[in-house]
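Lay summary. Proteins are chains of building blocks that fold into shapes, and those shapes determine what they do. In this project we predict the shape from the chain. Here is one chain we studied, written as its sequence of building blocks.
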Amino acid sequence: MVLLITVIVLMSLKQWQVAGPLTIAFFVLLALGFRGYAVLQGFVFSAVIFACVAIALFYPQYFQQVYGYRLTVLIVPLIQLIMFGMGTGMSIHDFAMVFQSPRGVLIGISAQLLIMPIIGYVLASVSGLSPEIAAGIVLMGCSPSGVASNVRGPTWRCRLRSPPCLRYWLRSPPRC
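And here is the predicted shape, written in a compact code that computers can read:
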């Protein structure tokens, strides 16, 4: 907890050189701590993802190119590979669950089309970031589903394969 408070204070003082490694250390230690409790073991992967995001946030130069090869070229093929993998893991039963739980579908669609854009707008308004970054935050809030939600579903033991089904209905959400 002390490490988290220290990170927040350093970030508010714009001490990025010190806050970066401490943020990464916080999430790594959080992941290691979660491993010790059976109730929290489902959050280990999420904490590791946050640590990786923190690394990319504070040290973006290591993720832009390798030996002169621009890594941005790999974005589309990797997303295609991930989507193909998710699609091959689905069955007719996954889509049947959507029809069996229309309440979950309505909750997911309303959350995706109302709550997420509103949260994106509020975060963009409050953050004080440049207009370009703020617009990106709002757009991300308006984007239906995503790769990260495909990771969260199995972690939270959802009965419905939400992201592919949500994209199917929006083009429906999980019943966890």
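What the prediction tells us: The radius of gyration is 19 Å.
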